[in-house]
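Table S2 (continued). Query chain:
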Amino acid sequence: MKVFIVGITGGIGLRLARILKARGDEVHGLYRNSNQTKELNSIGVTATLGDLLSIEPEHLTDAMRGSNAIVFSAGAGGGSNTMTKAIDGEGVSKSIAAARLVGISRFFLVSVFPEAWRERHMDEGFEHYITVKKHADIELSQSDLDWVILRPSALKNEPGTGTINLGVAQIHTEVRRDDVAATLAELIHTPAVSRKILELTEGSTPISKAVGAISSH
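Corresponding output:
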């Protein structure tokens, strides 16, 4: 399988690339910092250097062509409202348009819990981020693509446990980036999971079993 990752050098994208390569998949993607080329090459990935802020869908198609699935895991990472809208919002729109143009139907979007950290009374920038992510979810879910939206809880960098809670509704807690990437890899290889919004947290269920339970419903 060939998988194209938008945001391949990000906290989840790079982890996912490593896992997919280890499974024997062909991995490609889009990244915007030339300093990361060597790291990508070290895991056997030759990605396309480009800026999601300025790239047009027609140019994205050249990079995506021949892929079986698209994963959008890019994010502004707490930048300005303008950057959040451009990457987390318009970046998804561009990627959906490019996928349609090149005829790729399978599309995975890494999103966010709508109620994330509500008890903390977050600032206006965070509220804007939640709104942009919600609109991206809506756009993808209303498309004709074979989509899956994955909403991880608050992300941690500790080594993965290989166990999770996964379902259409979960209580927002935390989850490790390693486990998010491993869950995505499992979902990519489980075509029966289609057109679903899934929430992901720490838990005690092995990832393959958790995804299998979703696919059986």
